[in-house]
Design brief:
12% of the residues are buried. The N terminus is likely disordered. The protein has 4 helices and 10 strands, in the order αααββββββββββα. A hairpin with a 2-residue loop joins strand 3 and strand 4. With 210 residues, it is α+β, with helices and mostly antiparallel strands.
Length: 210
């Protein structure tokens, strides 16, 4: 009985202690919930599209037909041609440019997808390109800059264990078309034109019967 009585006494003391804590908690002033304005103030503002990205998007966004011309080269001994479509549009927030590309040429069907953005630190455009001809699936598309009315970029890669330099230029800008030229070689001083792609706005191409 002594043990039971001691247990009852301890239980009564514990209940009294809990009641005291609950009373103190009820007497303490409640903290007001954080207002929506305070919560929003802690969120950083969304990034703004750079002038460089706005310029690129305005120049290249749209739905296009593409006409490919391949020069004779070790890669294309007899040259060739191809046709297809491309769609370019602004990425989220206007901070990037996305491209979806499909064509059929002398090698068969080709498809690709790329993303380009402005690197403020490097003061150049950067990109990633993925297509059905790249063994690794995707690769860096190098860096590009405007030189007057020409957008030019360089990239390095390997083909059959050999270093290859690729230069891509965008020229001949009009409201309804532009031209992409790709040149390749073992170094920047030995570049030769490999292919040329003419982009024509789909609506304009339909009027011309292409």
């Amino acid at each position: 009985m002594r043990i039971i009585g001691k247990g009852i006494a301890l239980m009564m003391l514990a209940a009294l202690f809990c009641a005291t804590l609950m009373a103190q908690d009820q007497d303490m002033p409640k903290k007001p919930p954080a207002s929506r304005a305070v919560v929003n103030a802690k969120m950083p503002p969304p990034p703004q599209a750079s002038p460089e990205m706005t310029k690129l998007i305005q120049a290249m966004s749209g739905t296009w037909t593409v006409s490919e011309k391949y020069e004779q080269s070790p890669m294309f001994p007899t040259g060739g041609t191809g046709k297809g479509t491309a769609k370019l549009w602004a990425g989220p927030g206007g901070t990037s440019l996305l491209e979806s590309y499909q064509s059929t040429n002398m090698m068969g069907k080709f498809s690709g997808f790329g993303t380009t953005w402005w690197d403020a630190k490097a003061q150049s455009y950067r990109g990633v390109w993925c297509d059905s001809m790249t063994p690794s699936g995707c690769d860096s598309s190098g860096s590009s800059k405007w030189d007057g009315e020409t957008l030019a970029g360089m990239m390095e890669s390997e083909m059959n264990g050999q270093k290859m330099v690729t230069k891509i230029t965008y020229t001949n800008w009009t409201p309804n078309s532009f031209v992409m030229t790709m040149s390749t070689g073992p170094d920047a001083n030995s570049l030769k034109d490999l292919m040329m792609v003419t982009y024509t706005k789909a609506a304009a191409a339909a009027k011309m019967g292409q």
